[in-house]
Each structure stands twice: as C-alpha cells, then as structure tokens.
Amino acid sequence: MPSVTIYTKSTCGYCMRAKTLLTQKKVAYDEISVDGDASAQQQMAKRANGGWTVPQIFIGETHVGGCDDLYALERAGKLDALLSA
C-alpha cells in the first residue's frame, strides 16, 4: 500500500472529512499541519503544483487534490485501487 500524506489545518472542516474517510477505510496516513508554518505551506504548494488550500492529499506520489476529489474517487470506485497500487 502506498503511503498517504495529507496536509491540513486544525480548523478545516474539509480536512476533518477527508481524515474521517481515510480512517473509515482503515488507511494509515501522515498528517502535516500547515497551521502557522509558512515553510510547510510552501512545501505543500510546491508539491501540489500551486495548490494553496487544504487539505492537499497525496497517495504515494499521486496528487489526489482536496477533500471533494478524494470523495469523488470513492464514489467512482477508484479510491481502493489507488490505495492498493
């Protein structure tokens, strides 16, 4: 299973929803908080091709996008395949 990384902020409802879905699917993930951390936010934006909002989710080296993108993959039946690649 590829590693999962999610960049978050503590007050972000979308971050909480994304983490909830991953937890329900029993997926371990690394959470990187960008709360007040300009260098972490810049690292996230660079890795996410300019994506500045949170969450930014990565499965392995694949940039999934945000919470809505993660749920869209789940609805389309594609998330499990990406997680098990």
Tell me about this structure.
This protein has 85 residues and is α+β, with helices and mostly antiparallel strands. The chain has one domain: Glutaredoxin (3-Layer(aba) Sandwich). The chain contains four helices and four strands. It has a four-stranded mixed β-sheet, sandwiched between helices. The termini are close together. The relative contact order is 0.24.
Architecture, according to CATH?
3-Layer(aba) Sandwich
Count every helix, treating DSSP H or I runs of 4 or more residues as helices: 4
Number of domains: 1
Give the overall pLDDT as a whole number: 96
Spatial arrangement of strands, main beta sheet: 2-1-3-4
> Structural class, judged by helices and strands?
alpha+beta
Weakly predicted, low-confidence segments: none
CATH uppermost class: Alpha Beta
Q: Major sheet: size, sense and barrel closure?
A: 4 strands, mixed
Number of strands: 4
Strand content: 15-25%
Order of helices and strands: EHEHEEHH
By CATH, the superfamily comes out as Glutaredoxin
- State the separation between the terminal residues, measured CA to CA: 6 Å
- Give the proportion of residues in helices: 40-55%
Q: Shape, please?
A: globular
Question: At the third CATH level, what is the topology name?
Answer: Glutaredoxin
**Rg to the nearest angstrom?**
12 Å
